[in-house]
Amino acid sequence: MVYPAHVVHVLIASPSDVSAERAALRVTLWEFNDEHTPTNQVVMLPRTWEQNSTPRLGADPQVILDEQIVDSSDIAIGIFWTRIGQMLPDGTPATVHELERLVEAGKPVLLYFSNTPVVPGSIDAEQWAAVLEFKERAKSWGIYGEYSGIDELIERARRDLLSTVRDRLHLPQVTAPVGRKLGARPIARVEKRQNQRVDSKGALKIENLTYLVIENKGTGDAKNLRMSWASDDEDGLQPPIAHDLEKPVASLVVDGQIEISLMLHSATADRCDLHIRWDELDGRASESTQTLGF
């Protein structure tokens, strides 16, 4: 059946250390569409620079992004953890710049800060100080949210998007979902850890380790899970080395997770797309592509 629908463009703005949250939010928005669009005629379209910008020369990169995806967005979701992100020539963080443009345009902005613990010494002190400074300044904008894990962020964002679309965009037909669609939802993230050991001479050594973690945040098991990196980028950079990445996983149960050790090298790209394919319990084939930062 063909019917008209309200299309809401949702900008997801964040630095690279919350790439798992970005991927989870994209999935959440499409789940929102599965649940709401047939009855409420509302379509949420996620927007990120990786997926929705197109190459163009002749202007500053941020000016191009503003024209292509920022200024035409209806809502923004900002997420921060330990990094403020890339700086623009005037010293303003690019992510903060994007959020401020929507605030100045009178558009809704949902802002969240992660409380997830980090390994001491694993964060950039200058970036962390900038996040704390921005968090303090954000108090003058209104109210921001905090979360301690991806699940909490997703639940908060689902609730906040419902009320925002209904109250700020004047679409009163938007209602709370009556139930979530059954199915697996593999979410990938990169986790960095430090391991302390004593060598043969009694000296303390600290190893920096990187892991790819895949968690099933859905409501059904993922069968025959397969993963692969996207092809090398145009600059010749490569994804991390992961010897067991393409080995199929027979089953990833609800709330279960798998870990794969990653080896970063001099030619490792700053970010790569991870393709995930799996079979649902009813035999349906599903897939997703998630962008990870390293």
List keywords for this structure.
Immunoglobulin-like, Rossmann fold, 294 residues, 5-stranded parallel β-sheet, 2 domains
What is the gist of this entry?
The protein is α/β, with parallel strands linked by helices and 294 residues long. It contains 6 helices and 12 strands. Helix 4 (94-104) links the parallel strand 3 (75-80) and strand 4 (109-114).
Protein topology:
Layout: E1 6-13, H1 19-40, E2 42-47, H2 49-52, H3 61-70, E3 75-80, H4 94-104, E4 109-114, H5 125-138, E5 145-147, H6 150-167, E6 186-198, E7 204-216, E8 222-229, E9 249-252, E10 257-262, E11 271-279, E12 285-293
Parallel strand pairs: 1-2, 1-3, 3-4, 4-5
Antiparallel strand pairs: 6-7, 7-10, 8-9, 8-11, 11-12
Helix pairs in contact: 1-6
Describe the structure.
By secondary structure, the protein is α/β, with parallel strands linked by helices. The chain has two domains: 6-167, Rossmann fold, CATH 3.40.50; 186-293, Immunoglobulin-like (Sandwich), CATH 2.60.40. 27% of the residues lie in helices and 31% in strands. It has six helices and twelve strands. It has a five-stranded parallel sheet with strand order 2-1-3-4-5, sandwiched between helices. The protein has a four-stranded antiparallel sheet with strand order 9-8-11-12. It is globular, with a radius of gyration of 20 Å. The model has no long low-confidence stretch (mean pLDDT 83).
